[in-house]
């Protein structure tokens, strides 16, 4: 069993980006600039956004964090987005989700300039992804592609089963892996909560992407020997034996499948750490597009 180490891979990617940024600065060019808007005081969101700011510092990016109070109106948020859309110093920006209930998330995502949408959530970028046109791939699917490529996992002609059909992971993952690309050319089955006899499908899979949000859902008896498993889920489960009172688990029963898998992403330390690295990569891509 080989662990697909997202922590190490993301550190490698950040190091590669840092070298590229140092080269740009040596040529007296400006550094890429990533901005983030956060509305309210959600603890997990604040932690994640602060991690993004630190990652920008580490690779030499400029970063701007715009913190807005919980009671910010939808109109005020849209005005902030409009300002960033026309700010030539900002190459890419994100609006941290989730948003407070009184703000229409879809309206906000639609308002972001697709050329600065480094999260890859704008419908125009999702459409380009579906058509296999150059675009921003959202961070989690992008990170999974990068892990598969860097660990030389063959996808061409393989049977891939994606469990979960979210717009963030499952749906784009199924499209990307079926496309004619280096990490692609697979035969993909997209499954979900209404899929009948899921076990008979997962047992045929060479590669499984588990992204349905149910802890330890995928059991050992559901997979064949030699399978590659990408575990996207992360859930806190109470565990009195731990100092902090909980343990983090994925959508895969790790102990149940570990004797069968050839490769697997651990939780934590697998897909999770890749997301910020790929956001930085998208920002660098936005920078080069705008420069040209």
Question: What does it look like?
Answer:
This protein has 292 residues and is α/β, with parallel strands linked by helices. The protein is built from 10 helices and 11 strands. Strand 9 and strand 10 (246-249) form a beta hairpin. The strands form 3 sheets. It has a 6-stranded parallel sheet with strand order 1-11-8-7-5-6. A 3-stranded parallel sheet has the order 3-2-4, sandwiched between helices. It has a two-stranded antiparallel ribbon with strand order 9-10. The mean pLDDT is 96. Helix content is 39%, strand content 16%. The protein has helices at 6-26, 43-59, 74-86, 105-111, 123-130, 139-150, 170-178, 198-202, 254-257, 274-291; strands at residues 2-3, 33-39, 62-68, 92-95, 159-163, 187-191, 207-210, 228-231, 235-238, 246-249, 263-264. It has 2 domains: 28-113, Leucine Dehydrogenase, chain A, domain 1 (Rossmann fold); 139-264, 3-Layer(aba) Sandwich (Rossmann fold).
């Amino acid at each position: 069993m080989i662990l697909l180490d997202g922590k190490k891979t993301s550190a490698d990617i950040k190091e590669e980006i840092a070298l590229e940024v140092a080269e740009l600065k040596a040529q007296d060019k400006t550094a890429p600039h990533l901005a983030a808007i956060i509305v309210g005081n959600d603890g997990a969101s604040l932690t994640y956004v602060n991690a993004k700011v630190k990652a920008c510092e580490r690779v030499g990016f400029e970063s701007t964090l715009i913190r807005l109070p919980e009671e910010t109106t939808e109109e005020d948020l849209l005005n902030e987005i409009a300002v960033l859309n026309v700010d030539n110093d900002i190459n890419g920006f994100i609006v941290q989700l989730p948003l407070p209930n009184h703000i229409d998330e879809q309206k906000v995502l639609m308002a972001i300039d697709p050329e600065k949408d480094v999260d890859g959530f704008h419908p125009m970028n999702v459409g380009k992804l579906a058509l296999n046109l150059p675009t921003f791939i959202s961070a989690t699917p992008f990170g999974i592609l990068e892990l598969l490529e860097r660990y030389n996992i063959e996808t061409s002609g393989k049977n891939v089963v994606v469990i979960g059909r979210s717009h963030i992971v499952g749906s784009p993952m199924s499209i990307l892996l079926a496309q004619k690309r280096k990490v692609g050319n697979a035969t993909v089955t997209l499954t979900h909560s209404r899929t009948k006899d899921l076990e008979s499908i997962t047992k045929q899979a060479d590669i499984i992407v588990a992204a349905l949000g149910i802890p330890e859902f995928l059991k050992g008896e559901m997979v064949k020997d030699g399978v590659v498993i990408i575990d996207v889920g992360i859930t806190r489960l109470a565990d009195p034996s731990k100092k902090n009172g909980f343990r983090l688990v994925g959508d895969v029963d790790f102990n149940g499948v570990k004797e069968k898998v050839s490769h697997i992403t651990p939780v934590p330390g697998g897909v999770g750490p890749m997301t910020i690295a790929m956001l930085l990569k998208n920002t660098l891509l936005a920078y080069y597009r705008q420069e040209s």
